[in-house]
């Protein structure tokens, strides 16, 4: 799914997936209202059609990154040149993050029409990081088909789309990244699937109630995910009514999920379960107000969380660590600067966090490194990700002797997408 900004309220700067769902909810609600008004004016006695086909235009996420920055003359400039080579480009389109799939590298996105609509759902695949192929996917027109999850040897794309006069989760799955099928479940209607947690005992999808009225999102929901990609019966985790689940992870010993108030205010709440069935409250992280925790991962003997402080510009990168499985948290030392942390991964023997920072009239990917999560240093431009103004991406993938990154130039009109690669440098 695209990285989006909730323009209704700067207080609600949420995770990328939640913003995509809320944007789709608003688009669906708007198109349904237009359709109903047209019926009233025309005095058409026929009811509105039901089924999975959209009533009007398919919901189209706004091509705005997760949080917006005002250009600042004091911002750290991007490198004049990049050591990364552009190996693929779409002149009018977008791509989500690149991942290593069962049969090579894969990124998903869309090729846009001259009007700016997503005309064709596509995946870009490479078996060797040298040759690249674009494949058109027969995906529903109403899915935000971009970022992909890998669970074992199976791939999933998560979206939000039409269910007659309502909205709900749309899930696609693939064993090879080339042939995709839609996962069918009556439990998807009026709900959103945010993430899939892979664990030795089996995968769990996590989400929340998401009727087309986006003001009524709530809850923590779980689905068991079978090895063939199908979903089992949905379960409700008993939490406060206003809590919304936004992510989860297998720590190596238990499932850990997190979420926050419907309006992204107050602390981030954590829940834990040894088996994915019985859940208990675990602890809280209290980011600056306003602020948000985006991702939590296990790292050796501790948990590491990243996010940001602020509601718009300037945002401040934030990180936290927990030595007691999430029961208590300490804020880490992050060098100040106008930026935000959106993801964190263990890469080799270090932690790498990535986010965005202003760069003149554009944004660029910013990266930080840490040995233990308690102190973070900003990495020089172009060392971790391509220093290309306006290029937006948060992950990279390695295949053989090549490191590659896919992303989108959201500031361009129309948006364009590219893939950059290079050989490892001092890694």
Q: How many β-strand runs? A: 31
Radius of gyration: 21 Å
Query: What is the distance, rounded to the nearest whole angstrom, between the alpha carbons of the first and last residues?
Result: 30 Å
Percent helix range: under 10%
Largest beta sheet, briefly? 5 strands, antiparallel
Give me the number of helical elements: 1
Average pLDDT works out at 78
Tell me the strand percentage band.
Answer: 35-45%
Class derived from helix and strand content: mainly beta
Shape: globular
The parts where pLDDT drops under 50 for at least 5 residues are 1-16, 28-80
Short summary:
By secondary structure, the chain is mainly beta. The chain has one helix and 31 strands. Strand 7 and strand 8 form a beta hairpin.
Descriptive notes:
By secondary structure, this protein is mainly beta. The protein contains 1 helix and 31 strands. It has one helix at 16-42; strands at 85-90, 93-95, 99-101, 104-112, 118-126, 133-136, 148-151, 154-163, 166-174, 181-183, 191-197, 203-209, 218-225, 235-237, 243-250, 255-261, 268-273, 280-285, 291-299, 302-309, 316-322, 330-331, 333-334, 340-347, 350-359, 362-370, 375-378, 391-392, 397-399, 402-409, 416-422. The strands form 7 sheets. Strands 1, 28, 29, 30 and 31 form a 5-stranded antiparallel sheet that branches. Strands 2, 3, 4, 5 and 6 form a 5-stranded antiparallel sheet that branches. It has a 5-stranded mixed sheet with strand order 23-27-26-25-24, with no helix packed on it. The protein starts with 15 loop residues before the first helix and ends in a 5-residue tail after the last strand.
């Amino acid at each position: 799914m695209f990285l989006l900004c909730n323009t209704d309220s700067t207080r609600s700067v949420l995770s990328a997936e939640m913003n995509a769902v809320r944007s789709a909810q608003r688009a669906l609600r708007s198109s349904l209202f237009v359709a109903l008004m047209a019926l009233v004016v025309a005095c058409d006695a026929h009811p509105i059609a039901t089924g999975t086909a959209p009533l009007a235009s398919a919901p189209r996420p706004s091509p705005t990154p997760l949080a917006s920055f005002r250009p600042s003359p004091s911002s750290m400039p991007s490198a004049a040149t990049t050591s990364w080579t552009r190996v693929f480009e779409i002149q009018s389109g977008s791509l989500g993050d690149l991942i290593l799939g069962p049969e090579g590298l894969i990124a998903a996105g869309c090729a846009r029409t001259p009007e700016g609509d997503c005309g064709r759902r596509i995946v870009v695949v490479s078996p060797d990081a040298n040759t690249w192929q674009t494949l058109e996917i027969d995906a529903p027109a109403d899915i935000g088909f971009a970022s992909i999850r890998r669970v074992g040897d199976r791939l999933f794309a998560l979206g939000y789309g039409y269910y007659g006069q309502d909205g709900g989760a749309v899930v696609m799955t693939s064993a090879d990244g080339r042939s995709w099928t839609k996962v069918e479940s009556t439990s998807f209607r009026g709900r959103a699937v945010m993430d899939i947690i892979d664990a030795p005992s089996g995968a769990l999808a996590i989400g929340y109630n998401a009727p087309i009225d986006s003001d009524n999102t709530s809850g923590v929901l779980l689905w068991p995910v079978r090895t063939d990609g199908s979903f089992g019966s949905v379960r409700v985790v008993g939490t406060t009514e206003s809590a919304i689940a936004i992510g989860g992870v297998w720590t190596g010993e238990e499932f850990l999920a997190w979420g926050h108030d419907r309006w992204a205010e107050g602390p981030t709440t954590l829940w834990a379960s040894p088996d994915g069935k019985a859940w208990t409250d675990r602890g809280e992280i209290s980011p600056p107000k306003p602020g948000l925790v985006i991702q939590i991962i296990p790292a050796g003997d501790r948990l590491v969380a990243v996010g940001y402080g602020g509601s718009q510009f300037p945002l401040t990168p934030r990180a936290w660590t927990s030595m007691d499985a999430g029961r208590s948290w300490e804020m880490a030392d992050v060098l100040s600067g106008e930026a935000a942390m959106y993801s964190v991964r263990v890469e080799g023997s270090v932690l790498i966090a990535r986010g965005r920072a202003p760069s003149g009239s554009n944004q660029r990917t910013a990266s930080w490194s840490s040995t233990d999560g308690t102190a973070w240093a900003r990495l020089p431009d172009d060392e971790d990700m391509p220093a290309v103004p306006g290029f937006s991406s948060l992950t990279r993938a390695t295949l053989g002797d090549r490191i590659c990154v896919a992303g989108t130039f959201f500031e361009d009109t129309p948006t364009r997408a590219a893939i950059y690669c290079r050989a490892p440098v001092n890694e």
